[in-house]
């Protein structure tokens, strides 16, 4: 088990950024292995034969797959310093509920609001509005979803803090703004200005350029290209 932890990821992926952030919060040294998703490595396919997707965390030569499962694995394996999940069973269940809501509902609605047109886009934008209001409400009176410190819900919501902003900007639509979502905007500012988050996420303008360059392809396929 002495081998260094490895993270198979991609710099433009919000899912590998989740894992990177969790490892950095815990202070776990790791080797980052940048995958070319258009030409996946044989190792990635070997470690994740079911989905062939990043992120994959390799610990002691054993692969852990799916970003949210990896986050829980990291929290349980490197217990001690920064808690990613609350200790209290009720708070833990609640955190898992919001994480699932973000993953199952919010991400898709935000993503498709950027990459659809006409009536479909209108519907996705309405869904996004409703979901963002629910998150705005959940954040009331708190600095982070996790309270005073960054927790699993914040980490799961990384997509909202950076990707949703950059992608919507590259598609010239407004999804999250100060006027409608003051609490969420404040969270984004707090989250993105945290030193450990700054060290874990891709550079804003680089991400913007990445999506801007891929706009036509993504629009045609609607497939997540992050
Ligand atoms: N549910 C997965 C999603 C992972 C995912 O969608 N990864 C994308 C990159 S962001 C990927 O590897 N795509 C390659 C492909 O679909 O072939 C997780 O949370 O880890």
UniProtKB/TrEMBL annotation:
A single GO BP term for this record reads:
glutathione metabolic process
Entry coiled-coil feature ranges: none
Q: Which CDD domains match?
A: GST_C_Tau (cd03185), GST_N_Tau (cd03058)
Q: Which reaction does it catalyse?
A: RX + glutathione = an S-substituted glutathione + a halide anion + H(+)
Question: Domain of life of the organism in this record?
Answer: Eukaryota
Keyword Transferase on this protein?
A: yes
Which principal EC class is assigned to this enzyme?
transferase
Which Pfam families does its entry note?
GST_C (PF00043), GST_N (PF02798)
In what residue span(s) does the GST C-terminal domain sit?
A: 88-217
**Alphabetized PANTHER family for the sequence:** GLUTATHIONE S-TRANSFERASE U8, GLUTATHIONE S-TRANSFERASE, GST, SUPERFAMILY, GST DOMAIN CONTAINING
Which family does the entry's similarity section mention?
Answer: Belongs to the GST superfamily.
Return the protein name: glutathione transferase
């Amino acid at each position: 088990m002495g081998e260094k932890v490895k993270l198979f990821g991609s710099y433009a992926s919000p899912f590998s950024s989740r894992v990177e952030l969790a490892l950095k919060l815990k202070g776990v040294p790791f080797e980052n292995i940048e995958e070319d998703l258009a030409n996946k490595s044989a190792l990635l396919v070997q470690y994740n034969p079911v989905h062939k997707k990043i992120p994959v965390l390799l610990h002691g030569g054993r692969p852990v797959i799916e970003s949210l499962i990896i986050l829980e694995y990291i929290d349980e394996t490197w217990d001690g310093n920064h808690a990613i999940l609350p200790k209290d069973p009720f708070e833990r269940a609640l955190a898992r509920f919001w994480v699932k809501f973000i993953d199952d509902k919010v991400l898709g609605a935000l993503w498709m609001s950027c990459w659809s047109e006409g009536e479909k886009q209108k519907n996705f934008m309405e869904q996004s509005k409703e979901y963002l209001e629910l998150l705005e409400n959940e954040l009331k009176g708190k600095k982070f979803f996790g309270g005073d410190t960054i927790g699993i819900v914040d980490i799961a919501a990384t997509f909202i803090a950076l990707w949703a902003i950059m992608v919507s900007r590259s598609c010239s639509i407004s999804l999250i703004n100060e006027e409608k979502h003051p609490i969420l905007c404040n969270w984004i500012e707090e989250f993105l200005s945290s030193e450990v988050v700054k060290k874990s996420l891709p550079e804003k303008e680089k991400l913007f350029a990445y999506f801007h360059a891929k706009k036509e392809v993504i629009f045609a396929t609607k497939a997540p290209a992050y």
